[in-house]
Design brief:
With 216 residues, the chain is α+β, with helices and mostly antiparallel strands. The protein folds into two domains: 113 residues, Flavocytochrome B2, Chain A, domain 1 (Roll); 87 residues, Roll (Ubiquitin-like (UB roll)). The chain contains five helices and 14 strands. The strands form four sheets. Strands 1-9-4-3-2 form a five-stranded mixed sheet. Strand 2 and strand 3 form a beta hairpin. The longest helix has 8 residues. The two termini are 28 Å apart. The mean pLDDT is 92. It is found in: Cytoplasm, Cytoskeleton, Cilium axoneme. Keywords: Cell projection, Cytoplasm, Cytoskeleton, Heme, Iron, Metal-binding. Belongs to the cytochrome b5 family.
Length: 216
């Protein structure tokens, strides 16, 4: 059985913004470039990447080829990578260089070893209400995530979350399905069109204790 990819919110990617912990997203993928930063530590070619730490850099790429954008140099009439922020690691120099290693293997943007998951195409907010304690937690989740995956996010707020039945409007939720598949619709677009504050209409998921406390 193929393992499901892990989804991340833009906010989660943005939290990794230092040279010692650097993530970027592009073309729907999320990559941890921390090993690349360590491997090329001190290299000036890391600067464009560091400037975009924690951000989406899809604008660097051609979505059809999934490679760096290219252009024809008006001086040399040769095709080159388009890097307006400056040349970065694994992009070749503009001209012949004796110190350029052409045998570098896969460039980092094609190397799957750096991939940690996928960027959510649409995030949404939910309220998770513990009916036993009346505690409420506001969570930003990925629309692609199943309820089981959302539960994993919630565990840091309640280590015994597995001991609860999750319900919406009185109906037990299928933990193997997404919110939308469970009938928890995403009304953000409609609310925006109606110019209504979506923060006032965040769906509430109610948790009911099962009396079989699991270990935290």
């Amino acid at each position: 059985m193929k393992k499901r990819p892990r989804y991340f919110t833009p906010a989660e990617v943005a939290s990794h913004f230092t040279s010692g912990d650097l993530w970027v997203s592009f073309l729907g993928k999320v990559c941890d470039l921390t090993p690349l930063m360590k491997q090329h530590s001190g290299d000036v070619l890391l600067l464009p990447i560091m400037e975009c730490a924690g951000k989406d850099i899809s604008s660097w790429f051609d979505p059809k080829t999934r490679d760096i954008l290219r252009f024809v140099d008006p001086v040399t009439c040769c095709e080159r990578y388009y890097t307006p922020r400056g040349r970065f690691v694994h992009t070749p120099p503009s001209g012949p260089r004796s110190d350029w290693n052409t045998d570098l293997g896969q460039p980092w943007w094609k190397d799957r070893r750096y991939e940690v998951g996928l960027l959510s195409a649409k995030t949404r907010w939910i309220r998770v209400v513990n009916t036993l304690t009346s505690q409420e937690q506001l969570l930003e989740v990925c629309s692609e995530e199943t309820l089981e995956e959302i539960l994993q996010r919630y565990l840091r707020h309640n280590a015994h979350a597995n001991s609860y039945t999750w319900k919406y409007h009185g109906v037990v939720l299928d933990m193997q399905k997404t919110l939308s598949d469970n009938g928890v619709t995403d009304d953000d677009l409609e609310l925006e069109q109606l110019r209504m504050d979506r923060d006032l209409f965040v769906p509430a998921i109610l948790l009911y204790f099962n009396d079989d406390l699991t270990e935290g």
